[in-house]
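note to self: the first set is below, dont mix up w the second
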Amino acid sequence: MSLLAAPFVVPQLAFGGAPLRLAAIDWAMLETAITLGNTPVAACEVKGFRRDAVTPVLPPDMVDLGLRGAPNFELMQIVRPDLILSSPYYVRHLARMEPIAPVITLPFFVPGEGPLPKVMDALTALGARIGADPAPAMEAAEGDFARAHDRLAPVADRPVYLVNIGDSRHFRAFGTDSLFGNVLERAGLTNAWADRTRFAFTASVPIEALAARPEARIVVVGAPPVQVEAELHRSVLWNHLPAVAEGRLHRLPEISPFGGVLAARRFAMELVRALEAA
């Protein structure tokens, strides 16, 4: 499969004659289940997922269970899931969830540790629990990472800042313990942000910090707010950054930094598109 082909169409798998009814609290777990071919019937913050993660496209009839930090347990009980998908972020909800259905909790994002191996391991762990073969999803992901490595080899001579911009004076830097940082390394590129991060990124960092590696490229993930974009356009500081002044600024669309394997594959795909286009 080509890296640029649509990689997010997955079959619905059956277990014991019918798919398990899943409810997802955690978005990375939601992505993992979809990747394995069993789209949950309910999830938290469905509208937010559609906005921030963009893909995979959730079915219109998916039940929204409310906030990830404060799920609607009464509605969850009405949905009657066979299994609830969670992560250590939401361990405080276990006492409310376990009477409703069995809960599987898998770690993805741990301070100081790369999440990509955990993202891949989750395919195996959840696949075993719901009766789905993880091999096709794992092979597709590894293939995309390998193709990204080959296609980005011509631009591997420069380090890359991976950032998200919140205002015209500050950014978030995605480090080596981020999903984006891990995929960047798998693609053969060097992360220009070498300082410590916590839970995948460091915020808020002054814009001038991007001048520390003048030879680097800057890759912006997600569009800044319209007003911030206008302020950056007028900013002397921003426009005098070497990467901006010399045309080494690249834009990626909105991608969830706390997603699963589909977010990792989409980041690889969009990174290739952005850097090859330049």
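second set (the one i keep forgetting abt)
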Amino acid sequence: MDLLQLRYFQAVARREHLSQAATELRVAQPSLSRAIARLEADLGVPLFDRTGRGLRLNRFGAGFLRRVERVLRELDDARRELADAAGLDHGSIAVAAETLLTLTGLVREFRAEHPGVDIRLYQSSAATMAKQLRTGEVDLCFASQPLPGPDLRTRQLLREEVLLAVPPGHHLAGRERVRPEDLAGEPFVTTRPGYWPRELADRLFAAAGLQPDYTCESDEPGVTGDLIGAGLGVGLVPALSRHSALHTPVSWMRLDAPDCYRSLTLVWRADTYSSVAAQRLTEFAGEYFHRLSNRDPI
């Protein structure tokens, strides 16, 4: 077996789908299939169960994957250490967040200071971010809810109030504060399950004994304010988003509910090598969000 076979196996094992893995690796699917077959022949055991046109990692494959990821992680760490020896001009970082809009200002300022650092961005749910950290696909995650998994370290970047936004002409517009009970029967704009706005909304409605009317659910938390401004309903928006949505036609108010806040944290694995570029971005993010948190919410 060779290193390329191991990387091919890792990609197929993660996706359990040959064509998707081939697209990710930018190789022809027949070539990928032959590489996996040769690897299984070398090992003397099947690594996948074939069901029709599908693949499912079997117990041999699951055990082998754990070893392969350990080996490849060590090699990737060695590569990062060598890159670090050349300085920040040659670094690279893979980063995930629930919405990339959270990172636009940060990345712009960081790249201006460190133009040689290559940054790869992923938009992911909390569950996906946890998996990406576990497999080494990303170095850092910007998360607004706890990520499951061992050997994870976190750094809180900000804790901001979450506000209620309503469209123009809404009967609640102009009020400074509302209660959760005032939202009974209101069409509500939020995200799909797995993203922090949905988790917060579910908790607040449950605490108030209300049945939410989710009429608009998206996979992009950053567009909630625009959807509310379009008149699709009311919804929860973090306070800092108000400063980046000055032209969005919505009214903002506080919600009288306990712990109506978002905590943005930076999460990374403690048991892997942290590159100089990742360490610098960690410090840079702390400084950046500290400046933002000093703004008045409303």
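remember for set 2: The longest strand covers residues 152-166.
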